[in-house]
Amino acid sequence: MRSVNHVASKARRTKMMKHAKGYFGRRKNVWTVAKNAIEKGWQYAYRDRKVKKREFRALWIQRINAGARQYDLSYSKFMGLLKKKSIEINRKVLADLAMNNEKAFKAIVDTAKK
Q: What is the pLDDT of residues 83-95, one digit of tens each?
């Protein structure tokens, strides 16, 4: 008779099936379908952690552009002026200022324009 470690293989499957909790239909209770769904989900999660960073950077750029255009500057000209004046503020902070603190953003624009 062949020796199989059923305890370990069942534990491995059980651990994996816990990740399928909340899935619909056979994806939640049939081993092969669930395993494929879980692994695909992990692939998407890995990829989208990188995509999320891209999307947020794009959002910040749009917000900075909208804020800069109120003062007759395009995004690229505004960022160029900041670089020239050695003002090092990252896009996340600039976008937040453009949205939530117009006075501070205007002060940065005025400093860059001088």
A: 999 989 999 999 9
List, for residues 53-85, the tens digit of each pLDDT value. 999 999 999 999 999 999 999 999 999 999 999
Structural domain boundaries, residue 80: 26-113
Q: For 29-62, b where at least 16 C-beta lie within 10 A, e where not — what string? A: eeeeebbebbeeeeeeeeeeeeeeeeeeeeebbe
Say if 21 falls within a structural domain.
no
User: Which residues touch 32 (CB under 8 Å, ≥6 apart)?
Assistant: none
CATH number of the structural domain spanning residue 52: 1.10.1900.20
Please state the domain count of the chain: 1
9 in a structural domain: no
**Distance from C-alpha of 77 to C-alpha of 79, rounded to nearest angstrom:** 6
